[in-house]
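Anyone have tokens for Carbohydrate kinase PfkB domain-containing protein? Sequence:
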Amino acid sequence: MEIAKEAGALLSYDPNPREALWSSREEARTKILSIWDQADIVKVSESEVEFLTGIDSVEDDVVMKLWRPTFKLLLVTLGGKGCKYYARDFRGVVPSYKIQQVDTTGAGDAFVGALLRKIVQDPSSLQNQEKLEEAIKFANACGAITTTKKGAIPSLPTEIEVLQLMENA
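Reply: yep, here.
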């Protein structure tokens, strides 16, 4: 991480904790947060906010307990309700797309991958709310489409499928 950061890489962190892999919740929380400050972009789910803060809420005051001055973007995915985002100078909510869910496996990874692709294509989106919201809409569409089929990899959409969903929504 240090070498990547020194080289100017954008560091993204999606902790995705699996409690069964840790000896305790506290150990998992401590280890996950031990590298928190090194990330530029962090994505957590609703349940991960509770896991990391100990508070069962995604209200702004709770989510902001996870914010660090080093962040460029903090995201909270809300499943079928969309995504909350917190940048240095602005914040907001982007709703999801209404689809018929079959299997949610891989939706978060599809969301993160799509969002990172958009940010790499246009890094200024981290400082421009309108551009960031467009990138998150694209990522939400990727995540939504991924839930319409079984399996994480076979369900990943093409860009054409994503753009069609966005256009028809």
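Strands lie at 12-13, 41-45, 73-77, 83-87, 91-94.
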